[in-house]
Amino acid sequence: MSWLGIDPGLAGALCWRAGPACEFHDMPVLAAGKGKRRVYDVDGCDHLVQAYLARGLKWIVLEHVQPMPRNGALTAYSQGQAHMLWLVLCHTHSVSLRLVSPQVWKRALGLSGKGKDGSLMLARQLFPGAAADLRRAKDDGRAEALLLTVWAERHG
């Protein structure tokens, strides 16, 4: 069975995994307006889903984050956009979706309180062949997307 794990933030990532084989994509985003503002590239996300459907994708596991007031309105808005984007893509392409909160999957994998570095270390440990794609600190989104597939596989 193949899974597509998604860390849905604008700096997040996707990981397609079938057995030990995995492929990573940083979240498709587009520049928006002046400065460093970015928005989700809906067509880019759709293209990835279609490409993996052709390779047998049946399940998407999406980290379900809750907006927190301390993170601000823009972050909450962006999280809502990401959530709706993936819900719509799953519905459009008839892909089964599994939602899981960060607290649940991290606790199940022994990562509670270990932060992004803990996710990177565990992903490298479980998938040494993917270490080249997980070498930078900013690859934490890739690591978490990969670990979401591990959680999904273990929790059916």
Please provide a brief summary of the model.
The chain is of the alpha/beta class.
Description:
The strands form 2 sheets. This protein has a 5-stranded mixed β-sheet with strand order 3-2-1-6-7. A hairpin with a 6-residue loop joins strand 4 (29-31) and strand 5 (38-40). The longest helix is centred in the middle third of the chain and has 21 residues, at 73-93. Helices cover 43% and strands 22% of the residues. It starts with a strand and ends with a helix. With 156 residues, the chain is α/β, with parallel strands linked by helices. It has one domain (2-154): 2-Layer Sandwich (Nucleotidyltransferase, domain 5), CATH 3.30.420.10. It has helices at residues 42-53, 73-93, 102-108, 115-126, 140-154; strands at 2-7, 13-18, 21-26, 29-31, 38-40, 59-63, 96-100. The mean pLDDT is 93. The protein has 5 helices and 7 strands; from the N terminus they run βββββαβαβααα. Helix 1 (42-53) packs parallel to helix 2 and helix 4 packs across helix 5.
State the helix count.
5
CATH third-level topology: Nucleotidyltransferase, domain 5
Roughly how many Å apart are the termini? 11 Å
Q: Please outline the major beta sheet.
A: 5 strands, mixed
Percent helix:
40-55%
Q: Largest sheet, order of strands side by side?
A: 3-2-1-6-7
Shape: globular
Which architecture per CATH? 2-Layer Sandwich
If you average the pLDDT, what whole number results? Answer: 93
* CATH evolutionary superfamily: Ribonuclease H-like superfamily/Ribonuclease H
Q: What number of domains?
A: 1
